[in-house]
Write a structure and sequence with these properties.
The protein is mainly α and about 325 residues long. Helices cover about 80% and strands about 0% of the residues. The two termini are about 15 Å apart.
Length: about 325
């Protein structure tokens, strides 16, 4: 039991450190190749920060743990909204006055959520599902990069994207950071999946539940740290942008990669219970722009509701599984 717990903790640590190095290397390489800074911040860095979830998904799917891979994606989306954004709103209410770019990304996230759910309705994640999701990811990245290039000077998204850029590096340092980060991500994902699978067997819970709880929360901790700091600084746009981008990548890249790496059948509870919960949290996120019952935005009361909903969901998952 102890060795499995150590494997799991070591996997988390390596994923977080590896993602930081991988993101820094990828951003620096893109900068050396002449990619505009705002495009790097909106695409390259955003994709790199989702690398832990993607690597865990691939590792789990290759081991036949398709439920863990899908649970990681759905659970991370729930954690990003309920835990990350809920905590940020409690610290500092999030105004409805967010950038036009972020407002346009919210309907895209909702559409992606519906589309991903439709692909899982047959109770399985197959190779073609993975292809469709990865094609959608490519289209999303293209749309975001084109949108970023058309932003007017002074748009807050530009400042936020540039703020997240890693520092400039010499070519050899950038390449080294990229390769080392990728290698550490690979090892960390393997350790985490092996440890989490053994813990699931020890406690008699499914790999799906482990993906929805332990792995989902663990891989969302970096977003929580960044969003809390941003909220305290009054930079709500960074917190919102992180959540929207991460959730889109989770549905398209994480589930898509799992479909390619290891297609498999899914537990019926994925569509009947857990996907609807994720969709409900996503609808709550739309309050930032659309709220027919009052002023848009997420205040402290709504933040507390999101946090409470997340905690209750975790309690329900574990009590139902044990």
């Amino acid at each position: 039991m102890l060795i499995n717990l150590l494997y799991t903790l070591a996997g988390f640590v390596m994923l977080i450190w590896g993602a930081d190095r991988f993101s820094a290397g990828a951003g620096a390489v893109a900068r050396l190749l002449g990619v505009p800074p705002v495009v790097i911040g909106l695409t390259v860095v955003a994709f790199a920060t989702s690398a832990p979830e993607v690597m865990v998904s691939i590792s789990a799917a290759r081991d036949g743990l398709t439920g863990m891979a899908v649970g990681n994606a759905l659970g991370s989306n729930i954690a990003n909204i309920g835990l990350v954004l809920g905590a940020s709103a409690v610290l500092r209410p999030i105004s409805h006055e967010i950038s036009v770019t972020l407002r346009s990304e919210l309907p895209v996230l909702f559409a992606v959520s519906i589309g991903a759910g439709a692909l899982l309705l047959d109770g399985s994640l197959d190779f073609m599902d993975g292809i469709i999701l990865l094609i959608a990811l490519a289209l999303f990245l293209y749309w975001v990069s084109r949108t970023g290039q058309r932003l007017q000077p002074g748009d807050p998204v530009i400042a936020e994207a540039v703020q997240e850029l890693p520092p400039s590096m010499a070519p050899w340092r950038a390449g080294g950071a990229l390769l080392i980060g990728f290698a550490v991500l690979l090892i960390g994902a393997e350790l985490l999946v092996d440890g989490a699978e053994s813990l699931a067997r020890a406690f008699g819970v499914s790999d799906l539940v482990i993906g929805l709880t332990v792995i989902a929360v663990g891989t969302s901790l970096p977003e929580l740290a960044v969003s809390v700091v941003s909220a305290l600084r009054g930079e709500a746009g960074i917190a919102i942008g992180n959540v929207i981008g991460s959730n889109v990548f989770n549905l398209l890249a994480v589930i898509g990669a799992a479909g390619i790496a290891g297609p498999g059948e899914l537990d019926t509870s994925v569509i009947r219970q857990h996907y609807p919960v994720m969709l409900l949290f996503t609808v709550a996120l739309l309050r930032l722009t659309y709220n027919p019952f009052g002023k848009p935005g997420i205040g402290r009361a709504m933040g507390l509701i999101l946090l409470a909903g997340f905690v209750l969901y975790q309690i329900w998952l574990l009590s139902d599984a044990l």
